[in-house]
Amino acid sequence: MMNDRMKLSKEQEAILNGSQGEVMAKVMETLVRYGELFGADGMVPITSQYNHLVTSFGLKALGPVYDLMEKLIHAGCASSQKFTADPRPMDKNVPSSFLQNIVFNHFMYSKQEYYEGQLEKLGLVEKDAFTCTCYMDEVGNTPKQGDILSWSESSAVVYANSVLGARCNRNSGIIDLMGSVVGYVPHFGLLTADGRKARWIVEIRTAKKPEAQLLGAAIGMKVMEDVPYIVGLDRWLGTLDEGTKAYLKDFGAATASNGAVGLYHVEGITPEAIQQGRELLVEEPNVYIIDDAELKRVYDSYPVIWKKKEARPKLCFMGCPHMSLDQLTQWTEKIEQGLKEAGKERVAIPTVFTAAPAVLKKFEETPYASRLRKAGVVISYICPLMYMNNPLSASMPVITSSNKLRTYTSARYYTDEEILEQITKGGSAS
Fold first, then answer.
1. 357-391: per-residue pLDDT in tens?
2. Reported pTM
3. In what order do the strands lie in the sheet with 265-266?
4. Quick one: which of 409, 354, 403 has its CA closest to 383?
5. Partners of 184 in the β-ladder
6. Which of 16, 169, 209, 306 has its CA 20 to 30 A from that of 51?
7. How far apart, in whole angstroms, are the C-alpha atoms of residue 11 and residue 19?
């Protein structure tokens, strides 16, 4: 088999022609065709220490995926790099009804144990390496600036590109896996200097620090898949410390889910913006001004798709994407203070905080974990989105401060301040 359009190295050409077996040849062919579709000029090696897979859930309907995994395993095509994976979909500690559990265990995620076994055989870093925030220090899958990745989790991709300065396109789960297996990805889009240029300049003119998830949603819906260059946000964020990283984690997830942003630059904050400044802008970029009125307009535009719009919330999810250690400790203090003001000891609405298993392990070493549980909050590694995909969950009045969860499910969005008010003092969703 020969390739006439994309330039391949001798080694890549050999793999395409079967030097490493039929299965690996098909993997390379898939990546070549994918790259040609997007105008790639060649293939480049993956340079990150670890990969990250988005497909972490054992949905019964994903039979073709399991067949593909078995073929890779049988052919000895383990990933060329170890990988982490997105969060598990279930946790028995998360509140759910008898009927919900039947749907979870027997109809939706009945292949979970089997699929996790496949992941371990293909190169999972460790048994509990399941999180959408693999880049956190506690997890250890933190690429360096300039690293070439084969990732697909949208919130992880935009964080790696923007905050870490690594290079990765928004791939599908299968393309992500195949790149990891063969060790190469097509060179186009966000892997190129031109693809990382900003086509929008976004001016932040708010009177106070804007809500991360709300700001990200506004930008995502406006620029869609383009790269924005954001000015004025450094006024509120300062340096790239742990608090700023957590803010950009949530902000980026909203840009990626409410639009299709794979990279943003924040003037004075993100590495490429610091190094190159406004040289990152294309000539005559589009301009988007965000003030308080614009954020209110976006907030007010969100539809409420609950059966009863004024229903009392039955569940609150925090952590989509997964929370950082700093966020867990800060929220513990916020909840304790809110409950004290309300004259209560436990949250008024069943509440679940989610984080990476490695982050939760560190959190359990602090006194905050027991204090948070004492306040009635469930601490879990679950993926809230996968929980909400249950049809019986979709009919529940669930609240969240995650714009990603709001976008993909029936969960209703509130700001962090509003969430705190509801879970500590109770009341309706009005």
1. 999 999 999 999 999 999 999 999 999 999 999 99
2. 0.95
3. 265-266, 228-231, 198-204, 281-290
4. 354
5. 45
6. 16
7. 9
